[in-house]
Amino acid sequence: MKNNQNFSKSIRNISFSGIDIQLNLNKKKIIHAISKTLENGQYIMGPEVKKLELELSSFCNSKYSITCANGTDAITLALMGLNFGANDYIVTPAFGFISTVESPTQLGIKPIFVDINKDNFSININELKKIIVKAKKENIK
Questions:
Q1: How crowded is residue 114: how many other Cβ atoms within 10 Å of its Cβ?
Q2: Pick from 92, 115, 117: which is nearest to 102 by CA?
Q3: Contact 104/90 with Cβ under 8 angstroms?
Q4: Where are the extended beta strands (E) located within 30-129?
Q5: Do 113 and 94 contact (CB within 8 A), yes or no?
Q6: In 3D, which of 135, 92, 87, 138 has the Cα closest to residue 110?
Q7: CA 26 to chain CA centroid, nearest Å
Q8: Residue ranges of domains in the chain
Q9: Is 111 helix (H, G, I), strand (E, B) or coil?
Q10: Interval 50-57 mean pLDDT
Q11: pLDDT-derived band of residue 141, with 50, 70 and 90 as boundaries?
Q12: 4-18, 75-89, 97-111, 118-132: the lowest-pLDDT one
């Protein structure tokens, strides 16, 4: 329990998003991109978005990339691209952001919750193994 308390105290000192660091490193570039977007009025499908998608594709060594309005949309599109759909199952952390449940359920996918590792808040691998064994026994794909 003491380790959990120490970990909880230490994460309080970590910036939630670190956006201040990113802004300071790239302030001129960010302000320039925002100004260009405001000037041309093309907030979606405009030249700045196209440029970002090309840069993302290059960075990820991918032929295509699609920017999204938010993480929920991104998860939904990723699941659709992987051909997940009605009556499929997906494993998701029991402790996390709502999008990891909202997106699958919008597509008819049934979430299977896995408890987290209390030391680092990621999926508990031992619990995941139990779920995989159970799914194999029940012939869940």
A1: 22
A2: 92
A3: yes
A4: 89-93, 110-114
A5: yes
A6: 87
A7: 23
A8: 17-67, 70-141
A9: strand
A10: 94
A11: low
A12: 4-18
For residues 67 and 49, the answer to whether their CB atoms sit within 8 Å is: yes
Helices then strands (H, E): number in the chain? Answer: 6, 2
Name the DSSP letter for residue 95: S
Least confident of 71-75, 89-93, 117-121, 125-129: 117-121
Residue 89, token pair as written in the block? 């199952």
Question: What is d(CA 6, CA 23) in angstroms, rounded to the nearest whole number?
Answer: 30
Helix (H, G, I), strand (E, B) or coil at 22: helix
Name the residue among 44, 94, 86 with its Cα closest to residue 69: 44
Q: Which amino acid is at 56?
A: L
